[in-house]
Amino acid sequence: AQKVTQAQTEISVVEKEDVTLDCVYETRDTTYYLFWYKQPPSGELVFLIRRNSFDEQNEISGRYSWNFQKSTSSFNFTITASQVVDSAVYFCALSGGTNAGGTSYGKLTFGQGTILTVHP
Amino acid sequence: GAGVSQSPRYKVAKRGQDVALRCDPISGHVSLFWYQQALGQGPEFLTYFQNEAQLDKSGLPSDRFFAERPEGSVSTLKIQRTQQEDSAVYLCASSFWGWGLILWNTNEKLFFGSGTQLSVL
């Protein structure tokens, strides 16, 4: 069975601090996809990133960066110079792969989420 | 519409009542998912439609839960004889491609609605 663990339930930082959200996953699939979603108070899940299991390149998008390490089954998310608008619940999610050319990516297994509060 | 639309936004039901939750996906999207999110938890998969076909209902917690998407667009999640443990946010998501039709190098992703918060008293 697939499992995603976000050990940090809540994180509180002051604006402009850097913050890293941890994500550890378990899967028996050799091919899979990892995601991060942001859930603001409005409730809608906002897509941040999708990472394929065969692509271990780290990625940076503005103030956001992701560190994928297959050897430790981790997919951590760092926000640099945090802002108040970053306050939200962040979810890491995992989907299984199928044979080449197909994916069951839409059936996601989510972690429990990390509540991030950024204070001014 | 521009995004995934869900209605009602809030629903209060007395225990034992039947409820129907609506999801209007992004126009043209083949895939539609329902997720259940309990308070303080991550969303959990309920069921999946590819067009009008329900290909996976493995996450439905009991036979009181029923989902349909008769014309391959709007979907309804129905809960019969609601119980207090059914209280949760029900999220709908859609994507353009169908399950199993994704190519490795697409940037496909799920688009989520804001959910329906169901409270069973």
Write the SSE topology.
The complex is a heterodimer of chains A (120) and B (121).
Chain A: E1 3-5, E2 10-14, E3 19-21, E4 24-26, E5 32-39, E6 46-52, E7 59-61, E8 64-69, E9 74-79, E10 88-96, E11 109-110, E12 114-119
Parallel strand pairs in A: 2-12
Antiparallel strand pairs in A: 1-4, 3-9, 5-6, 5-10, 7-8, 8-9, 10-11, 10-12
Chain B: E1 5-7, E2 10-13, E3 19-24, E4 31-37, E5 44-50, E6 53-56, E7 65-68, E8 75-79, E9 88-95, E10 111-112, E11 116-120
Parallel strand pairs in B: 2-11
Antiparallel strand pairs in B: 1-3, 3-8, 4-5, 4-9, 5-6, 7-8, 9-10, 9-11
Task: Write up this protein.
The complex is a heterodimer of chains A (120) and B (121). Chain A is mostly beta strands and 120 residues long. Chain A is 0% helix and 51% strand. Chain A has strands at residues 3-5, 10-14, 19-21, 24-26, 32-39, 46-52, 59-61, 64-69, 74-79, 88-96, 109-110, 114-119. In chain A, strand 5 and strand 6 form a beta hairpin. Chain A is globular, with a radius of gyration of 14 Å. Residues 99-103 of chain A have low confidence and may be disordered. Chain B has 121 residues and is an all-beta fold. Chain B is built from no helices and eleven strands. Chain B has strands spanning 5-7, 10-13, 19-24, 31-37, 44-50, 53-56, 65-68, 75-79, 88-95, 111-112, 116-120. In chain B, strands 2, 4, 5, 6, 9, 10 and 11 form a seven-stranded mixed β-sheet that branches. A four-stranded antiparallel β-sheet of chain B has the order 1-3-8-7, with no helix packed on it. Chain B is globular, with a radius of gyration of 14 Å. Chain B starts with a strand and ends with a strand. The chains are: A mainly beta (120), B mainly beta (121). The A-B interface holds A 4, 35, 37, 42-47, 50, 52, 91, 93, 98, 100-113 and B 3, 31, 33, 35, 40-45, 48, 56, 89, 91, 93, 95, 99-104, 107-115, 117.
